[in-house]
């Protein structure tokens, strides 16, 4: 009976191949994937993957593929079937334990209050008063390969936009140059929004994020909120993540979500964050895809998000994550074009 159902569903999916739509059979489907948030794996037949996930603490969704004779990859975090990514590989199956995530998607526009601060990148003098160009080529804790320059060497203000230029060139014994911009102003709570086009290609890693202002910084305990990260080997997939002492990638407990966006390289998109004393929510083009609520037993370990944070804009080359599948050195130079960055009060 299972084989008959399997064949029937496979035929249905095959017939719909041209539309590249995931065809769900209850809470599982062929030819799809969920990116990131792995908590473990097991070599089991495909029909046992769901039950193995349900028996694993923290597992909320899974994928199965035929790697190593058949592997179930168990994953954590709030998830919807709409977050699944089409692969077209019918040797993979993805599934969720529950119908959808437990947050109610909110309209970001309804959460915006007054505009408190912005950089529209309409003048170099405004830019220089709003941002600090951090410098260095020490790897930045991620084995990054770029040297961050100052004195506007890798930034350009023109036509109402900021461009971060990332180049293949030697600087202070590093093979690439780029820019890392730290806001001169510190922020606590609000709605943050950037309109941008991203660099492309394997080895690039642009980001728009908030890092605790405290110095000396005790990372991850002091907190980090990643509004947008994109790694070039996984094109058009946007990551939003929080880091703190309890939840961080160093201990394998980080909390984040991904969403697929159409053509982030040639089209401007909005990358947005809502941050209050009760909740952190991530959006792309006004559509919510991530939420982390203040735990009922909150303390500085799981909620260091009542302090001041800085905005950071940067493009990494390589790094532990960015170079996970190597670097295509033929893609440089690259541009990270930012139309504006805005901070609103939250309602």
UniProtKB/TrEMBL annotation:
**Which stretches make up the GH16 domain?**
84-347
Q: Name one GO molecular function term.
A: hydrolase activity, hydrolyzing O-glycosyl compounds
The organism's superkingdom is given as: Eukaryota
Task: Name a single GO cellular component.
Answer: extracellular region
Q: Which UniProt keywords apply?
A: Disulfide bond, Repeat, Signal
The residues forming the signal peptide are 1-20
Q: Name one Pfam family in it.
A: Glyco_hydro_16
Q: Which GO terms describe its biological process?
A: carbohydrate metabolic process; proteolysis
Similarity comment text for this entry? Belongs to the glycosyl hydrolase 16 family.
The protein, known as = GH16 domain-containing protein
Query: What organism is recorded for this protein?
Result: Brachionus calyciflorus
Give the organism's phylogenetic lineage. Eukaryota, Metazoa, Spiralia, Gnathifera, Rotifera
């Amino acid at each position: 009976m299972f084989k008959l159902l399997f064949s029937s569903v496979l035929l249905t999916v095959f017939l719909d191949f041209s539309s590249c739509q995931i065809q769900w059979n209850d809470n599982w489907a062929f030819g799809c994937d969920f990116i990131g948030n792995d908590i473990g794996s097991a070599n089991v037949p495909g029909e046992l993957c769901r039950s193995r996930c349900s028996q694993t603490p923290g597992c909320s969704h899974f994928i199965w593929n035929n790697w190593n004779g058949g592997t179930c990859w168990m994953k954590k975090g709030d998830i919807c079937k709409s977050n699944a990514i089409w692969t077209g590989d019918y040797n993979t199956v993805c599934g969720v334990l529950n119908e959808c995530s437990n947050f109610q998607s909110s309209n970001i526009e309804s959460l915006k209050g007054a505009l408190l601060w912005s950089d529209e990148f309409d003048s170099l003098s405004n830019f220089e008063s709003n941002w600090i160009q951090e410098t260095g080529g020490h790897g930045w804790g991620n084995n990054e390969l770029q040297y961050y320059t100052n004195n506007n060497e890798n930034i350009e203000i023109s036509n109402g936009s900021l461009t971060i230029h990332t180049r293949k060139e030697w600087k202070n014994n590093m093979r690439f140059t780029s820019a890392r911009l730290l806001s001169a102003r510190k922020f606590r709570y609000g709605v943050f929004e950037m309109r941008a086009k991203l660099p492309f290609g394997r080895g690039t890693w642009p980001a728009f994020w908030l890092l605790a202002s405290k110095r000396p910084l005790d990372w991850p305990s002091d907190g980090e909120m990643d509004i947008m990260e994109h790694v070039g080997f996984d094109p058009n997939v946007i990551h939003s993540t929080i880091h703190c002492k309890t939840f961080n990638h160093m201990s394998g407990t980080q909390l984040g979500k991904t969403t697929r966006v159409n053509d982030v390289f040639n089209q401007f998109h909005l990358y947005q964050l809502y941050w209050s004393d009760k909740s952190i929510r991530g959006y792309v083009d006004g559509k919510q895809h991530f939420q982390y609520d203040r735990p009922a037993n909150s303390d500085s370990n799981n909620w260091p998000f009542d302090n001041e944070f800085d905005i950071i804009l940067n493009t990494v080359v390589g790094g532990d994550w960015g170079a996970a599948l190597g670097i295509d050195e033929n893609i440089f130079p690259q541009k990270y074009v930012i139309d504006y960055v805005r901070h609103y009060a939250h309602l």
